[in-house]
Request: fold
Amino acid sequence: MTDHAICLEDRVAVVTGSASGIGFRAAEQLCRAGAAVALLDVDGTRGSRAERTLRRCGGRAKFFHCDVTSGMDCQEVTRAVRDHFGRIDILFNNAGVMKRQTVVELEEEDWDHVLNVNLKGVYLMSRSVIPIMAEGGGGSIINAGSGWGLKGGPRAAAYCAAKAGVVNLTRAMAIDHGKEGIRVNCVCPGDTETQMLREEARELGEDEEIFLESCADRPIGRIGQPADIANAVLYLASDLSSWVTGTYLVVDGGGLA
Reply:
């Protein structure tokens, strides 16, 4: 499946939330660059379909069911990936959920769910993967942040809090694990055309198409596509970013600008 200027042959990548959207496109790009990819998701049906899709195109991919909010799940699936592929060199902590509510509107269980998936999941997966990466001589961890991890957004209190946590957790991990040859960075997408974004529109009671059109109001003049984010992940996973760690890469068509 390798048809890339970037070569990740002999490397193994783990991508959470990889059954669809940004996660799937990132897994696809990593496969195209020659990496073997472990697809992690809670959706077994879509996850198995993603595996078949990548395999049909010649990619080395295998689906593993994993709930990133469970420490036991993360530990078990990490061992399973190592046993199957032999090593782990790249981790893209992509799994995420959104809840469009203020702190007054949020139920406590919704707050917990958003923080657990978006932030705790990064901690749990990284805790399980880092020792394996260190044994192999290092690697690259890419955490999924957001533009709303760098600035506030309306009716998204839990999401903003979680993604801001991801940005600073990225810095802390980079400091702690650089000596082990592990780089840790964060990609911060703007509005990207995914099922999650469409679900946001429905949650806000807005027309989906009008909502998506409004998301294109930025200097580049279009909404983001999963491939736009996947390209940034590929860069951060590769040796092209070998001296890049502890930072965030905003990929939003100029929205924050």
